[in-house]
Amino acid sequence: MSVTLHTTHGDLKVELFCEAVPQTAENFLALCACGAYNNTPFHRIFPGFMIQGGDISLGPAPGTLNTLKPMLPVNEIPKGGTSIYHPRALNQEIHLPALRHNARGILSMASRPVKDRTAPGSQGATGATVNGSQFFITFAAAPHLDGASTVFGKVLNLSAQDEGGDVLSKFEKARLKVDKKGRVTQPKEGEEEEYEAIGINNVTIHANPFANLEEDRQILAGSIGPNPLRFVELALGIPKAGSMTGTIYPGSTDYRHLCRPLSAADMALLGDLRVTLPARFAWQR
């Protein structure tokens, strides 16, 4: 699973760890797919350490999240950005020791502290920090971040010989206006010769295992149909080939309100699968 971040300084080829951190990967891919990361800046940089971006509140589009709905049901993007699970929290997925900040080019989520567990974006938080839309890329190993931030990918082109070239080095050597806290000020009109702009222009997704998720959710909600076989698969938590749908609906308890009459053809299509279903499903011939 890979994406290309088309940046002001070249293309970053990125591998994502979808199976290891599915919620984090789904969030990142969904924000890429809807254009939320388009024309957003890298707003912090520390050469030799990391570069940070992904604040979707700083991008010109979508200024409101109409293009994200119903994925992100808010009227305006909160300052600092947020995840597709808003107002629910995107919790840390730090459970695999192999996912570490142990090299140059590691992608990891930039978290924020939980101050109010009832606030939008923090509801359902299980730890002291939660994630949103922001992420960072390491310029070197940063073991002090292991156990504190969710690693979800890595940059593939790290040398001049790799396809796309060594973009991270271009970031580190860029002429930027940076304060002592690493905050980047993008050049204003007339300052382009003195300072460089730095950010993400757009993103290309090369393979998206979550591409069918929104369709599946609409099937469960009854707004797309009839697709009785897929409905049953979703209700039982059966993943579609090539997707991670089965991990999205664990522990679901009641789908009675979603059931609709099934025709004889539908029943034939379902075959013996119906005998495995809980009694709460109102099957009709």
Structure overview:
The chain contains 5 helices and 13 strands. With 285 residues, the chain is of the alpha+beta class. The strands form 3 sheets. It has an 8-stranded antiparallel barrel. Strands 5-8-7 form a 3-stranded antiparallel β-sheet, with helices on one face. The two termini are 42 Å apart.
Summarize the SSE layout with pairings.
Blueprint: E1 2-7, E2 10-16, H1 22-33, E3 40-46, E4 50-53, E5 90-91, E6 106-109, E7 112-113, E8 129-131, E9 135-138, E10 151-155, H2 167-173, E11 177-178, E12 184-185, E13 199-205, H3 213-221, H4 228-236, H5 264-270
Antiparallel strand pairs: 1-2, 1-13, 2-10, 3-4, 3-13, 4-9, 5-8, 6-9, 6-10, 7-8, 11-12
Which labels suit this protein?
alpha+beta; peptidyl-prolyl cis-trans isomerase activity; isomerase; single chain; Cyclophilin_A-like; 13 strands; eight-stranded antiparallel β-barrel; 285 residues
DSSP strand tally = 13
Our measurement of the CA-to-CA distance between the termini, rounded to an integer number of angstroms, reads 42 Å
The low-confidence parts are 63-74, 233-263, 269-285
Major sheet:
8 strands, antiparallel, barrel
What is the H/E order?
A: EEHEEEEEEEEHEEEHHH
Structural class: alpha+beta
Averaged pLDDT:
77
State which percent range the strand residues make up: 15-25%
Order of strands side by side in the largest beta sheet? Answer: 1-2-10-6-9-4-3-13
Cα-atom Rg, whole angstroms? 22 Å
The shape is globular
**Approximately how much helix is present in the residues?**
10-25%
